[in-house]
Write a structure and sequence with these properties.
7 strands; 3 domains; 467 residues
């Protein structure tokens, strides 16, 4: 390839990327490392457009397979278009690289291809952006730059991938893609509870207790639920999958696998976050929604729903991200998109308001209302004797039927509290009478609050009977 054609080829179209031969690719990789290991200045504009674009093209594909990183930190989801890759052939369409993709590319190449420590890169960026630096800070900045350039010069991660490719472009692409997968797993999401709990789940699947103090509860979960896990590469599949072996207790809990998986998982009750009666909000910061035993049961339910076939770790995390969505960071500028719950059915289609079930597919407002009601009821009834719960449930149901004609004009738990003369119920009924002030304002849903409350109370009663 002469100099002119090489220069033209470095412009990097999609056609160039998908048809490149390994010998040219190898040459470009070493050029890519050599250029970046030189200290950049205004007179020496460094670039290797081909490798930059080659990796960005893979990043684009990776994003599309990961639903544009919807569960990750918002910085990875920024959708401002910053670059375009031209097709170079009628078979392809030009693709757009967003600022989120570019940020992932920069973080990925630094960490996985050049083995630069995240702490080093973070400190270097902070010092670089500082308007005025002390003498010690200038020295520190120079030292960090030297450390970064030495890492780039070695290009350890990238060279390892190149060597392991065994003269195959497709192998190089596959190894690079797998490296992205490993890096992706460690990216923080917009839900810190999910990140913390996901580590527990992964350890459970891999049979690796987090530490000595959790070892007993870890293996007790296996014993009580009668399960064991196999973490393995499934032949013919693109990613790492897990399988579950059921030793006993296969039919516990009792569930209908024809139902939506989320409804069946809801049979495993979440532990409550701390509730602040002053603010009327739940503190999710230190929330621990499930223990090991409950996670073992949840994984067993998912396994049964998947017809006993292995499931990818990515698909598994999607399920857990939806289960723990209440702890998600709220960004008012970004619409939250969650896994659609296909088990929900419109309230308007239900003729008998006293026979509402969990199969309710409706808008976000209704889902938020039910979540609020459920968590408040669980907060109130936590540790309460089952007989007391049943008595309150029965009387509340009777009051619903007694007041059916004017149900929109009353708040039954307030009436229940006022009529009560049982000292054992006084405290709990007082708490229940406050529920109306915690339910979000209804803007779309046209249904009496007590009907919604009873719906959730009935679900809780059903779950407790199944536990």
């Amino acid at each position: 390839m002469n100099e002119k054609s090489k220069e033209e080829f470095s412009l990097s179209t999609i056609n160039d990327i998908v048809t490149v031969e390994f010998t040219y690719l190898e040459d470009q990789v070493y050029d890519f490392i050599r250029l970046r290991s030189k200290k950049q200045n205004s007179k020496n504009k460094l670039s290797n457009n081909f490798i930059d674009t080659y990796i960005l093209f893979l990043v684009y594909q990776f994003y599309k397979k990961r639903n544009n990183f919807i569960a990750k930190d918002a910085i990875y989801q920024e959708d401002t278009v910053v670059l375009e890759i031209s097709p170079g052939n009628d078979k392809y369409s030009k693709i757009k690289i967003t600022s989120g993709m570019l940020f992932f590319y920069e973080e990925f190449t630094a960490s996985r291809l050049f083995n630069i420590k995240k702490s080093t890169l973070s400190e270097l960026r902070d010092l670089k952006n500082k308007k005025s630096k002390s003498k010690l800070e200038v020295q520190r900045y120079k030292k960090l730059r030297e450390e970064v350039f030495n890492c780039i010069k070695k290009g350890k991660g990238l060279k390892d991938i190149l060597i392991r490719s065994n003269n195959s472009t497709s192998s190089f692409r596959g190894l690079l893609y797998n490296s992205m997968e490993q890096f992706y797993e460690k990216i923080p999401s917009d839900n810190t509870v999910l990140d913390n709990e996901w580590r527990k789940i992964r350890n459970l699947i891999r049979n690796k207790p987090e530490n000595a103090s959790t070892k007993n509860s870890f293996f007790k979960a296996f014993e009580e639920e009668g399960v064991s896990f196999i973490y393995e590469k499934e032949p013919g599949q693109p990613g790492v999958y897990y399988a579950v072996k059921i030793n006993s207790n296969y039919d516990k809990p009792d569930l209908d696998v024809k139902d939506n998986v989320y409804d069946c998982i809801n049979l495993v009750e979440q532990n409550l976050p701390k509730f602040d009666e002053t603010t009327g909000e739940f503190n999710y910061q230190n929330w621990r929604p499930y223990n090991y035993k409950k996670y073992a049961r949840i994984l067993k339910i998912i396994f049964r729903h998947n017809r006993e076939f292995p499931i990818s770790m990515y698909e598994l995390k999607v399920i857990f991200s939806d289960l723990l969505i209440n702890a998600q960071k709220e960004d008012p500028n970004r619409k939250e998109i969650t896994v659609k719950d296909s088990t929900l059915d419109l309230l308007s289609k239900i003729q008998d308001p006293f026979d509402l079930v969990s199969e309710i597919e409706t808008h976000n407002e209704l889902k938020t209302i039910f979540n609020t009601i459920e968590k408040y009821l669980r907060f109130v009834f936590e540790g309460i004797d089952q007989d007391i719960f049943n008595e309150i449930y029965t009387r509340y149901e009777e009051m619903l039927h007694e007041n059916y004609e004017e149900i929109e004009k009353v708040e039954l738990f307030i009436n229940y509290y006022n009529e009560n003369d049982d000292k054992y119920k006084e405290d709990i009924l007082l708490k229940l009478s406050k529920i109306y002030s915690f339910i979000p304002k209804l803007n779309i849903v046209n249904s009496p609050l007590d009907v919604l409350i009873f719906t959730q109370l009935k679900l809780i009663k059903g779950v407790e009977n199944n536990e």
